[in-house]
Amino acid sequence: MDDRSTTRRSFFGLAGGAALLCTIGGEEVEVSNSKGLEKADAVAARVRRPRAAAARDVPQIQPAPGGVRREYWIQAETARWDITPIKRDEWHGRKFPNRNGYRAYVYRQMTPGFAAPAGGINIPGPTLRAEVGDVLVVHFRNADRKLRQAVTMHPHGVKYNPEYDGAYMGDFTRAGGFIAPGETFTYQWECTPDSVGVWPYHDHGPNHTLNTFRGLFGALIVRPKGVKHPDVSYTVFAHQLPPPITGIQRNFQCLNGRAYAGNTPTLRSRVGQDVEINAFGMDSNFHTFHIHGHRWKDPAGTYVDNPAMGPNESVTARFVEDNPGRWLYHCHVFTHQDTGMAGWYVVDP
Amino acid sequence: MDDRSTTRRSFFGLAGGAALLCTIGGEEVEVSNSKGLEKADAVAARVRRPRAAAARDVPQIQPAPGGVRREYWIQAETARWDITPIKRDEWHGRKFPNRNGYRAYVYRQMTPGFAAPAGGINIPGPTLRAEVGDVLVVHFRNADRKLRQAVTMHPHGVKYNPEYDGAYMGDFTRAGGFIAPGETFTYQWECTPDSVGVWPYHDHGPNHTLNTFRGLFGALIVRPKGVKHPDVSYTVFAHQLPPPITGIQRNFQCLNGRAYAGNTPTLRSRVGQDVEINAFGMDSNFHTFHIHGHRWKDPAGTYVDNPAMGPNESVTARFVEDNPGRWLYHCHVFTHQDTGMAGWYVVDP
Amino acid sequence: MDDRSTTRRSFFGLAGGAALLCTIGGEEVEVSNSKGLEKADAVAARVRRPRAAAARDVPQIQPAPGGVRREYWIQAETARWDITPIKRDEWHGRKFPNRNGYRAYVYRQMTPGFAAPAGGINIPGPTLRAEVGDVLVVHFRNADRKLRQAVTMHPHGVKYNPEYDGAYMGDFTRAGGFIAPGETFTYQWECTPDSVGVWPYHDHGPNHTLNTFRGLFGALIVRPKGVKHPDVSYTVFAHQLPPPITGIQRNFQCLNGRAYAGNTPTLRSRVGQDVEINAFGMDSNFHTFHIHGHRWKDPAGTYVDNPAMGPNESVTARFVEDNPGRWLYHCHVFTHQDTGMAGWYVVDP
């Protein structure tokens, strides 16, 4: 069980599609190993703030009548993260020699005013929740001191002024598209009627691909006002952690930054509960989301148990729980399912 | 036209994504050629029955009022299977030097009590059919004597007790998740109102990826009670047979275990018939299902002629036939279409 | 910034899935570089007209009551085409040493009777527009003098007689499936009620994969009679131009034959306009279509901002514009987005 051989390296590096080709600050950088990652970070650290991004007289967005401003404090920071913390695959019984740690980049929720962490380090970042008519107000701080590069928060689904797009666009970059280390910026995103849904947010700074792969992503959910909420709501991101990101000579097929059942999230519910599980693709691959023993209606009214999802697409499984037991859930791409992209869903009677 | 060169081997092995990485019984096995396959089989043969899987006091499932128990007898066996039986591609006229046979693993329908085969060896296995309210009762036998490993039947779409999940889950495996060579097990699956649809079933034993790739898959169709059935109904699985599975140094893009028009199923109908063609993805790739000269409504009400499908997803083309002629049907991934994933649909006036 | 190194070559050739395996005229040709392309063209030039394709007494198709015959004159020709005409990526500021030209194969719109070009060389070909009840009459000429091989036009969505399928089918090829150099053929396609939608057309001759990759594709739109048309309507094809097609040692992720923002189409609209953007996949990969700052209803009634699309599938973004600014639009497959598959959408107040 040698995880480090050159055979494995070429196997995962090429066949797994694990090499990343990135455009950063006017250069193209091939990131096929840790050295490539270092180079990419150095290039990203040299990207200067575009002039248009310097504006700070950004508009104040008011909620619609009846809506509120929902405030979050979130900071981006890098931290050690274990991909296989229990050092074991509970499905097949495989043991791992180590926890497979790497330097992750995460969105961490803070208490108001960035006073203190509101919780631990986690992949994905906090799930932002709002209703139609609200404004999501996200006070964002780039708190990382190691990588010396700008990052952002770019949301899907909500409506926003270009200042709050959170996307680096070179000369066309606006205020929210370049948050340098140590800086704070407040995003204001409108939850319009057509924002209803389950959406991802992620880094869209100058080094977005690598930093998103490192863990800078999360979910936001906008519901119609007054609608019944599910009793339990889970969020599962399907994504790979390839060698260039982790420095580990194998490709991990992950759910929420973890690989292999028992490490990946163990979802739980009870019979009778209104259950919602939101799944996303968050890498360069296409995935499916399958839960054993369950099926649900997709938006077109078809019963499904294994819908496909592309990068930054979401699917929602919503059902009233009626089937107690321990169930596998997994991506049904066979090569993903077998190398970590699976977990437990445990239903109590 | 040398099918065996090392150039080809690396081309298909790497670029085709044909190598398989499997987790089997606590080990990770790279399967990039026949030797890897042998190793995987040896590892799978050593997997012991988990304790929880020994239970035999499994529940008896009763049909809903008006429903019936629909019984099938199916056995898993390995057999020689030809990928290109006519040694020719009828589309482009290409000739093959041989039939490209390999050891397949198939679900074979038997007469009641496993008295005798109910038909020949086939990929996919028999299509199971039921209506809402029924219980699908599948008497399953692992009849293979060569590979000495447990297999199962895991269904999608239907509702089942954990004993009937048909999934190996290590220490958590239940009765139906480990059917050793020579053993028989009776699955009982409920066809609830939300089971309506076209679903796959497949092996989910300890060596599921390789055995599913070898051919252990089929379809099950649950219809609402009393609904009009189509006049003709076809099932088409899109999947690859890569070198490690076949021992042949090229990757075959298959429909129902066959590659290239004339070998793949030739579908037939007549003008005026109510036609249903159910297509599935059944490998680690995403596919589309295109029929020339035809289009149909998808579940959202949009007319389509080439919908996408992920692994273990199905799409259904249903239409009243109005266009006589000989038509190509194929996956529209260009590299799949060109290397076997195409066939004929012949409509008589 | 060396685009030509062997490292890059193997990187793009293998990891990018850029090699093409084609079946042409009874042979299988590996096309992994310019030499392979030459060989494929030589093989394609030797394909003889199938006997059944010689028929010229093809049926005349009449429009439904109230419909009309909509005539187009289109010729296939090869021409030099620049992938990065402005030699710069306006998003990340990267400069290119050259325009990255290659020999493209395009559908060019002509004035009636092929009297003169109706416009310049373009990828994609002209968008064909019709209403339900109409017959699309496409006078097609294979005007290329260099590649000496048959090409066709194969449409999706519309209804057609086998003579007008536009698909080479070996011995079963009909009249419209083999248009040799210098020949002209008139396709007649019915726009039936179930043809409503946005569809691709493309080459389906003996060398269809390579010629489609070279640029032989376009869109056709069929609307219900009398329906409101959008104020602006754009068509965007997501596809790669890999080394074997271009002879350039890198893989371009393109939109309409161009790579990197500023080269790819800059879409424009004004606040208040009814905007339609139709996006297609047109290679062997799956893509998504994301527009910053916007969302729209998909056919199932779900709000989306990043739907997936397979090869030759389309998705339509339709919305009333309400968000002025400069926005990125891109495929959300990270490796595609970073290597060219992105552009600007500019909304005037």
Key features of this structure:
homotrimer; 349 residues; mainly beta; Immunoglobulin-like; 2 domains; four-stranded mixed β-sheet; 36% strand
How would you describe the overall organization of this protein?
Chain A is mostly beta strands and 349 residues long. Chain A folds into two domains: 6-46, no CATH class; 51-348, Cupredoxins -  blue copper proteins (Immunoglobulin-like). Chain A contains five helices and 22 strands. In chain A, strands 4-3-6-8 form a four-stranded mixed beta sheet. A four-stranded mixed beta sheet of chain A has the order 5-10-9-7. Chain A starts with 5 loop residues before the first helix and ends with a strand. At the A-B interface, helix 1, strand 15, strand 17, strand 18 and strand 21 of A face strand 1, strand 2, helix 3 and strand 19 of B.
The largest interface is: A-C, 51 and 47 residues
The oligomeric state is: homotrimer
Question: How do the strands line up in the largest sheet of chain A?
Answer: 4-3-6-8
CATH architectural group of the largest domain in chain A: Sandwich
Instruction: Describe the sheet with the most strands of chain A.
Output: 4 strands, mixed
Distance between the termini of chain A: 39 Å
Find the CATH topology of the largest domain in chain A: Immunoglobulin-like
Query: DSSP strand (E) fraction of chain A?
Result: 35-45%
Number of structural domains of chain A: 2
Give Rg of chain A in angstroms. Answer: 20 Å
Q: How many helices of chain A in DSSP terms?
A: 5
The top level CATH class name of the largest domain in chain A:
Mainly Beta
Order of helices and strands of chain A: HEEHEEEEEEEHEEHEEEEEEEEEEHE
